Structure prediction request, 337 residues.
Amino acid sequence: MSIGVETDLVMSGYKAHTQGFYLKTCQNFIKKRLKLYCMVDIAIAGSVALDTVKTPFGEAKEVLGGAATYSSFAASFFAKPGIIAVVGEDFPQEHLELLKNRGIDLSGIKKEGKTFRWKGSYGYDMNEARTLKTELGSFESFKPEVPEEYKKAKHVFLANINPELQLQVLEQMSNPDIVMLDTMNLWIETKKQQLLEVIKKVDVLLLNDSEARELFKTPNLMKAANSALKLGAKHVIIKKGEHGALLFTDTSHFNAPGYPLEVVKDPTGCGDSFAGALIGYLAKTGNNSESNLRKAIIYGSIVASFNAEDFSLNRLKTLSSNEIESRYKAFEDIRRF
Ligand code: AMP
Prediction:
């Protein structure tokens, strides 16, 4: 073989090799970009449910609800959430489509058994729901598996569900900047020790006023917040329904008003919408300072106030970013003196 032919062969082998290498690099690059694209900003664990709700202004049967549902929908106005939950084989596909079309990642939702169902009612004081029935369904045996694309999320919201599941989710996360936790009286009454364990690990604890009193056995909200801070929570937010929310840290205190609404049809999911918008705003701005947290609380109050205007997610479904911003301006007016 002449040197010229040998060189040609070597060169074409080299070319094929570099082309192969180039192709592989491109493939890896695309894979990485796709993975980045699929990554979520906020991992949200909690119930995805079918609710039956009665208020003095109407009734809704077997409608879309659940803590992770409301919170991820509210968060999606600001950033990309992904849900960790389980629904039953009986869960309507149209509900999943609705969430998917909002850009919410559903790869952390398993489908097995029977869907979680909650039945509740409200009197004319709509700040407190009366639980009439809770059917855990497939949540009873649920073993949460956090998808790879969620593990590196910098924001985690452990929405209302059994605190043992909240802990299992948290243990699978890589290194979040902000972990926020919500709960309810059922878990305070049946899983108190497990709940206290999770509280030790979170940056932001959300409770409504009656839950705070019940959990820390005091009528005084300041004392309740201080007990939670002593346990390890860095920020404690106490929600007071239509009267707004209080933020406590070791060194400060902030008081956000509620938005004065004339039409309130169903407050179900207001706490979750508040939480979702709050963490969504933190994720969008990438700023976890206290002054930004105060702004995030206002955004939480705004989205929660819209949610109360109709049953299920009906109002959130039609809500626009412009409406959120104009209510933000109204909030600024309310607070000016
Ligand atoms: P809230 O924001 O507090 O009004 O939350 C209402 C939502 O919480 C409803 O859509 C219910 O499906 C859900 N929910 C009620 N009870 C529980 C529970 N024990 N665990 C998890 N989610 C619940």
